[in-house]
């Protein structure tokens, strides 16, 4: 599990989370990637393309890589605070809350990273 709370407000921390998740997926790790706080905006089509950080992989490419073999979840409360609904998000991104997060965190082989 990787939970990212940072967005454009903390670009290096945000990019690190996406990079670690995509590398983990490419390495065969089952990744559950959670968008919370300011990173919630990246669940919307086109928003990741607006993110820029020198010497970092483009977020749209990292999102595609994560979704290829992992899953991306947008926090329910974070989505609600931003008036984001399931119809608004990129196909394949789900909206779920704390109960699902805790279930995944307590899975037998789960390890969590928070950015």
Automatic annotation (TrEMBL):
Gene3D superfamilies per record: DsrEFH-like
InterPro entries found in the cross-reference section: DsrEFH-like, Sulphur_relay_DsrE/F-like
Pfam families (alphabetical): DsrE
Name this protein carries in UniProt: DsrE family protein
């Amino acid at each position: 599990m990787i939970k990212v709370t940072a967005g454009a407000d903390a670009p290096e921390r945000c990019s690190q989370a996406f990079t670690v998740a995509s590398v983990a997926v490419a390495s065969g790790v089952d990744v559950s990637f959670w968008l919370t706080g300011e990173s919630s905006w990246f669940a919307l089509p086109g928003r990741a393309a607006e993110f820029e950080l020198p010497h970092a992989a483009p977020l749209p490419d990292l999102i595609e890589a994560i979704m290829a073999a992992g899953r991306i979840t947008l926090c329910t409360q974070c989505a609600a605070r931003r008036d984001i609904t399931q119809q608004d998000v990129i196909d394949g991104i789900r909206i779920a809350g704390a109960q699902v997060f805790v279930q995944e965190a307590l899975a037998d082989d789960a390890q969590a990273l928070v950015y």
